[in-house]
Amino acid sequence: MASIIYLDDDLIQHMLMKKLLKIHIPGSSTEFFHEPEKLKIWLQENKADLIISDLNLEGESGWDLVEDFMKISDAPIVFITGHASPDDKKKAKNFPQVKQLLEKPLEKEDWEKIASLI
Fold first, then answer.
1. C-beta neighbour count of 71 within 10 angstroms
2. What is the pLDDT of residues 10-27, one digit of tens each?
3. CA 23/CA 94 separation, integer angstroms
4. Looking at the DSSP assignment, which residues form a beta bridge with residue 78?
5. Is the peptide bond before 86 cis (omega within 30 degrees of 0)?
6. Rounded Cα–Cα distance for residues 20 and 57 (Å)
7. d(C-alpha 104, C-alpha 81), whole Å
8. Rg of the chain on CA atoms, in Å
């Protein structure tokens, strides 16, 4: 069973993602976090097969966190955002662990890309 981590500071997005993960990646085990620090602590003691994170978190960016994630986990990272700037797309190429930078709303093809990483 794949262990998927979801990080987003918007709890409404957690409810939506729970439903979408059940539909698109059934049988996965998912942990939800809204505080990056709690996720970092969890990752130090647990293994994740995939990290999905909102790119724009309150007070910080996913880019601020990616190096910390890479130090404590080898899980592929997928960033999701409402709008990916050209700068974000360039940054994604600098981090081999960041496998996708996807824009909301996620389409069926996006879910196929995500599922292929597990």
1. 10
2. 999 999 999 999 999 999
3. 31
4. 52, 100
5. no
6. 20
7. 6
8. 13
Burial group, residue 98, by CB count within 10 angstroms (0-12, 13-18, 19+)? buried
Two structure tokens written together for 62: 């996913």
Give the pLDDT confidence of 53-82 residue by residue, as tens digits: 999 888 888 898 998 999 999 999 999 998
Q: 10 Å Cβ neighbour count for 74?
A: 10
Confidence grade of residue 117 (pLDDT, cut at 50, 70, 90)? very high
Q: 56: which 2 tokens?
A: 């724009």
User: If you count them, how many residues does the chain have?
Assistant: 118
Cβ–Cβ < 8 Å for 99, 80 = no
